Amino acid sequence: MVISAYHVNNVLRVYGDQLRQSKISSRPKNTDPSTPDRISISSNARRKTIIDNITNNIINKITQYGPYDNVEKEVFEKLENEYGAHLTISGDNPKELVFKEIDEHGETINSLSIEDSSFLTNKLKEITEETIDKNMR
Question: Of 6, 30, 72, 114, which cross-links 67 as Cys (Cβ 3.0–4.6 Å)?
Answer without folding.
Answer: 72
